[in-house]
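Hey team,

Filing this mostly as a record. A colleague (T.K.) asked me to run one chain through the structure pipeline before their review meeting, and I want the input and output archived in the tracker in case anyone asks later how it was produced. No errors, nothing strange. Just documentation.

Input sequence:
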Amino acid sequence: TGRRVIPLGSVPLAQTPYKNWFDLSQCDSIHLVNLVHIALTFVLVSCQQNRIHAYLSTLPPSPNYKLPSSPYFKQSLCPHYLKEVEIYGLLTIMSSTLPGVSMSPMPSWTINWTMLCGTMFVGANLFITAQGTKQWYIRRFGQTAINGKAAMGWPSISLWALAISRLVAFILPR
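Output structure:
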């Protein structure tokens, strides 16, 4: 039987002709390690974002609001925004196809453009919002209180490692 390509979103996944769309039996070790790394990084980043939100909920309300002092806020004023963008980036990677692993009903070597565009929108939106938050912190607490802190910060080391492992998986021959 020939392989039919069905546009994403037109048919529920359960009705696609790909019965074993998440079959790891055909996965070689480098791609399996990459897949596990993506899943573990997603859990880690989600837990970090949850801890940041839990900390923010303990701060006093507006008149008595104080500058966050959690370790997550040492270099960044809005680390929870960065974690949100990281989560969207990981969802984009997970919804795209790894070489040799059918993680979605799309053909190999594809990018989920809908998720990528969504990630870019969320990133741009939260970056602009973080700049406004930084200006509010400057007005509220003064420039000296936030010196050296970025509005959103940089992605975590685990995401850099994930990006490198994705690149290696892309380059290595099967």
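Quick notes for T.K.: Residues 4-21, 99-107 have pLDDT under 50 and may be disordered. The two ends are 24 Å apart (CA to CA).
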